[in-house]
Amino acid sequence: MIVGTASAQTPAVDELLASYGSLNSACRGGSGDDPRTQRACAERDRVVSALQRAGYCYGRRGQVGAQMSWHRCGPDSLR
What we know:
mainly alpha, 8% strand
């Protein structure tokens, strides 16, 4: 799940978060030998890098995978 923070996000970050969601679904739900799946995974990885450069992290210490979401990095964020 992708969740925003209480502070305002820039439109670019909003777009990256939306892209991550659809690309992650295509990557995880696609066939591994399908070129479309491979492109979705590669593009998702580029989006992840852009989010990290923008100061966003995925998950916090002590969370299980189902609890993790993108958020502004803080002291307890996984990096």
